[in-house]
Amino acid sequence: MDAHKYKSALLDEAVEQIASLPGVGHKSALRYALHLLKQPAANVEKFTSAICSLRNNVRYCPECLMISDNGVCPICADRSRDHSLVCVVQSLRDVISIENTGQYHGLYHVLGGVISPLDGVGPADLPIAELEARLEKGEIREVIMALDTNMEGETTALYIYRKISRFPVTVSAIARGVGFGDDLEYTDEFTLGKSIQNRQTFTV
Amino acid sequence: MDAHKYKSALLDEAVEQIASLPGVGHKSALRYALHLLKQPAANVEKFTSAICSLRNNVRYCPECLMISDNGVCPICADRSRDHSLVCVVQSLRDVISIENTGQYHGLYHVLGGVISPLDGVGPADLPIAELEARLEKGEIREVIMALDTNMEGETTALYIYRKISRFPVTVSAIARGVGFGDDLEYTDEFTLGKSIQNRQTFTV
């Protein structure tokens, strides 16, 4: 018995669209669709127009390319931050994660993606020329790579490294190792290997 | 350091709207918003218009009140099903769950909610008169209550039981194979199937 035949084309279309969100399966999408269906029409209108408005009216910081409603973002505008440090990240989520650590006081460069031929994203689709333009100004002395440790992230970091190696800047990458609270036993071999290679002098 | 100050009002509004979905937290909502932001405008338009269209153009089966694009739904229209059995459920999700067990071949009556004074839902907001009208026709011999086993579900079942006890029908409830506090939606098919087979005469 196919449950699909008892649903409507309207519902199917909405569920299919919602299930296109990352990590949202068919069951959750159905749940969200039925939730929206129960809301007053005005709420659903608010829901969809907030998303449309975000997509159509979003503006980016001309410096770091982070989402910013009004020109230069608060991080780039903050002269108390270290403007000689730039951390290259994939998305705003990573900026928020790093900001939440309270350990970083430099600037960012938000790529908005990584090189991924399978998804049709090539180097030209990423704002790497914009990073070079920032380096041209000569104020930056270190570029920190903070991209994901998967093939796309590594490829992108390597590509950027080659592009910017002509500038007199240090290029670093965030340390990889065993996370706090992680068991060695359950850490993958690559991470554990890296964390042994990159061991630090013991401090108490 | 407040991560919020680095975000835009447009993004905040979209995230807040997405986080209004059931079980979606702020972090997931941000992830979905950034995903939508990366999509072509046409895709986002498709996404939001599918939701608007569902909310504004949805139609219901005049018999069982299940979502149905074209008049009587396929379940009510199927004469090979047992039209003397009606299963009262809260939503389409529960219909799908029960259909997936393959154990039930009667009809449904979709309430679209349960009595919940805290949410402002009273008995008059539920299609209970419509259930009575179906019983008036005399074809139905058994009503099976398949509402969630929480206070609202129990209250609703009791209310409906009292309303329909004047009809010469058996009123049963799905067996308590479903754990207290569990939602039908997340119950495995075997348990749910058994609980329909082993339904009990409704007692107060």
Q: What is the gist of this entry?
A:
Two copies of one chain form a homodimer. With 204 residues, chain A is an alpha/beta fold.
Low-confidence stretches of chain A: none
Most extensive interface: A-B, 66 and 66 residues
- C-alpha termini separation of chain A: 65 Å
Total helical elements of chain A = 8
Task: Characterise the protein shown here.
2 copies of one chain form a homodimer. Chain A folds into 2 domains: 3-57, RecR Domain 1 (Helicase, Ruva Protein, domain 3), CATH 1.10.8.420; 74-173, 3-Layer(aba) Sandwich (Dna Topoisomerase Vi A Subunit, Chain: A, domain 2), CATH 3.40.1360.10. The model of chain A has no long low-confidence stretch (mean pLDDT 88). Chain A starts with 8 loop residues before the first helix and ends in a 7-residue tail after the last helix. In chain A, 28% of the residues are buried. Chain A contains 8 helices and 4 strands. Chain A is of the alpha/beta class and 204 residues long. Chains A and B meet through helix 1, helix 2, helix 3 and helix 5 of A and helix 1, helix 2, helix 3 and helix 5 of B.
